[in-house]
Every structure is written in structure tokens, then in C-alpha cells.
Specification:
Number of strands: 4
Order of helices and strands: HHHEEHHHHEEHH
Shape: elongated
Largest sheet: 2 strands, antiparallel
Distance between the termini: 38 Å
Strand order of the largest sheet: 1-2
Number of helices: 9
CATH architecture of the largest domain: Orthogonal Bundle
CATH superfamily of the largest domain: Winged helix-like DNA-binding domain superfamily/Winged helix DNA-binding domain
Helix content: 40-55%
Number of domains: 2
Length: 176
């Protein structure tokens, strides 16, 4: 790999890192000399400074991080406020995982698997459009059956349900 490829790889690592990343951490990923990493980072800093971009690379907390330029801070804060409420609670994530892997199923079946009442989580997921009523069970009371939606696939970046990780992967991790 040449220096240009190293620079691109370091740029990708910086982009993918939510937290500042140290030179030592970069060395753990790509086993190259520290001076090559420092040189590549300095080149990237110069490139981002010289181009018309809202992004820069900053040295912070003993490492380096991609960041938006300060003049865009008010819009980034507004975006963060708007997206913070989009995060799912632990109860909603558990409920959604159960539905994704076991669908279609009733709320009572969800409650039995979780061991707690799931009314709030089911309502939240329906309101967000991540699950929907897909039918009624042929059982006394004809309870609703729930399944995932296209919005669920989009939210998790899946083409279809076959792209869900195998359930036994999680069961094996839990047993370990």
C-alpha cells in the first residue's frame, strides 16, 4: 500500500470514528510507521482547510477527529435536537427485535417473551411506523398480529428481513 492509499484509509477511519482517535489507535488498525500517519493526517488537515467544505479535521483530546466547521454549529445543534427524539428506548428495541425475528405475533406473545407489559413500546413503534398490524390471529378475541414495515427496513439499512443477523448469533453471545 502506498502513502496515498494510507491517507485514504486514515481518512476513512477518521470519518467512521465517533470519538477522537489517537495515532496509536490508527497504528493498531494499519500497521505502519507513526511518521507516515502523522504526515497523512497533516495532509488531510491541509486538504480540508483548503477546499470549500463544511468539514475539517481537528486535534482534540489527544487524538484527531472529523468535525463540522464552527460556522455551521447552529444548524448542527438544531439537527441534533431534532434527531435525539428519534432514538428508540431499550424497551422499544427489545420489542422491535422480537417482532422482527418472530413475526407475525400478538401483543400477548410479545409480553410473554419479554416478561413485561409492552403496551407503550408497541404503541411507540406503531406511531413511528416501524411496525404495523398485519392481520388478526385465529384465536379467541381475534387479537391483532404485528409485523415490521418498510420503514423498519429503512431505519436499520436492510434490503429485506433475510439480512437480519441470525438469531443464534445473539444467543451464543449471551451464553458466552
Amino acid at each position: 500500500m502506498d502513502n496515498y492509499q494510507h491517507k485514504l484509509l486514515i481518512e476513512a477511519i477518521l470519518f467512521a470514528s465517533a470519538e477522537p482517535i489517537t495515532i496509536k489507535d490508527i497504528q493498531k488498525v494499519i500497521d505502519i510507521n507513526e511518521s507516515i500517519i502523522v504526515n497523512a493526517i497533516n495532509q488531510l488537515i491541509d486538504e480540508y482547510s483548503n477546499r470549500s467544505s463544511a468539514i475539517n479535521i481537528i486535534e482534540i483530546a489527544g487524538g484527531y477527529q472529523m468535525s463540522t466547521k464552527p460556522e455551521y454549529a447552529q444548524w448542527i445543534r438544531k439537527h441534533k435536537r431534532n434527531t435525539q427524539s428519534n432514538k428508540l428506548s431499550q424497551a422499544s428495541l427489545e420489542t422491535l427485535a422480537i417482532i422482527a425475528y418472530k413475526q407475525p405475533l400478538t401483543k400477548l406473545e410479545i409480553d410473554n417473551i419479554r416478561g413485561v407489559n409492552s403496551d407503550g413500546a408497541v404503541k411507540n413503534l406503531v406511531d413511528r411506523g416501524l411496525i404495523k398490524i398485519v392481520g388478526k390471529k385465529e384465536a379467541p378475541g381475534r387479537p391483532f398480529l404485528y409485523g415490521t414495515t418498510r420503514d423498519f427496513l429503512h431505519y436499520f439499512g436492510l434490503k429485506n428481513l433475510t439480512e437480519l443477523p441470525p438469531l443464534n448469533n445473539f444467543l451464543n453471545e449471551e451464553a458466552a
